[in-house]
Amino acid sequence: VGRLIAEATGASFFDLQAEVAQRVGVPVRKAMRSWPDQHVEPALRLLGQELESGQPTVVALGSETLLERARRLEALETAVVVGLDAPIETLLGRARANEHWLARIGEVDGGLAGALQARRESYAEVHAVLRTDRTSPEEVAARATAVWQRDPIAVAAGERTYCVEVGVGAALTRSRMAVGGASLLLVVTDRNVGPLHAAPLVAHLAVDGARVESMALQAGEEHKNPGALLSVWERALAAGADRSSILVALGGGVVTDVAGFAAATYMRGIRWLALPTTLLGMVDASVGGKTAVDLGAAKNAIGAFWQPMLVLCDPEFLRTEPQRGYLGALAEVLKSALIGDPVLLELLEQQTDAVLGREASVLTEIVRRSIAVKARVVSRDERESGLRAVLNLGHTVGHALEAAGGYGGLSHGEAVSLGLVQALRIGQALGRSPDALLERVRGLLARLGLPTLPSKDRLEAAVELLTHDKKRKGNVVRFVVAEEAGRVGSVSLELSALESLVRRLNDQ
Ligand SMILES: NC(=O)c1ccc[n+]([C@@H]2O[C@H](COP(=O)([O-])OP(=O)(O)OC[C@H]3O[C@@H](n4cnc5c(N)ncnc54)[C@H](O)[C@@H]3O)[C@@H](O)[C@H]2O)c1
Ligand SMILES: [Zn+2]
Description:
globular, 16% strand, binds zinc ion, alpha/beta
């Protein structure tokens, strides 16, 4: 199959098994399950060199190569990974036809069951798994090529791994295929997005006579509450939704948070497809599987981790997003660039006008890159054990500024913009952030029309909030600092030290 894909696309082909077999000195059909490391490592190094050429390359490898999670994640981040599978009877039949395969299975702890369990673990976290029974190798190759061309980003979460696809037209070309076979589709949108974007989607989903219902929630954060949740549950029930129905969320972060949580809870959890229509919904809310509603003033107080089956990000939706939310989300994009993608920072700097003009081609690239940074962090830290803290860059002071004077003043994105500048100044004062980076970030934010300097009053109120936040362990915060474009670190700071730093820096 790998060879067929390479031939059809003009890519080069690298067969890892063959490379190792040659080093071991046996024919590839005698491939063993556990190759000796001293032969695998040089073959992997050779592969690395191949890939550095930047040429499109198809790599064939055994699922056991991806068993180690760190290696699997590395593969997911650098390539599109497709697993080939078949029902156990087919696999057994194939094994019987090849004595070496039979012997190979015998080498594994637990025999065939052990081999399949290992494969299951590898295949849980790949971009796609394709069945190879009752179909030709050419057909499998064509399907794998289609996955490759969509260039999905995987958010690895064990059995709940899912993909994010970014592209002009993604919503209207991919949704139907993704939800095929569902008994009922319930499109959940809001009263602003619905009139603008729901009709073509509903028409697209309803091709082939699928049952499609839709509903529009009241728009805005003040409606992200249990009432909205209840209305989705009731609508789903009235429409006769069952466990094989799918919720399709079309809207900003409020809609995806509400619909996602409704999906998490309806009949103990049903599938949902996310079609974010705001930049924040795409670059932030689409990665991580968090869903929630607010309870009174307590933001996201009631929620669940419930990964969507797929996220489709269509930059065309962003043309109609209100300007303030769009600009604010650019602060989050810049945050991601600082955390893990220097090219993204350059792109924002060099294409500022295209970004402000919401040009689809530039947006596609920017959204992709931001999502990839967050996906990398989240995948490596499924259980929120610490690494995810880097995503707080700009948010320690940012959150305090946002909360100061109530949530009416600054938008979240504007607060993050201010918080990023504060974080860089603090990093600079601590000798961790370079002067030039501070200037780059400040300059870029200003050109994007985002605030860089908080008012004296707001800052004063924010400092008060920061130091009176008793939730923090031992009054010490792990403060995230930007060390260079694409690299962050952290420092333990006593709250009192943070307070005096912020005061001193802003008095100058
Ligand atoms: N789940 C997560 O991990 C996560 C991450 C970040 C933010 N969030 C949540 O997301 C919410 C904020 O998201 P948001 O900024 O998208 O806000 P939002 O969903 O309220 O959308 C902002 C406004 O724009 C309108 N709108 C949305 N898309 C539009 C479009 N394409 N054209 C015209 N109007 C459009 C909406 O109706 C709304 O009035 C917050 O509740 C936040 O908690 C969740
Ligand atoms: Zn944020």
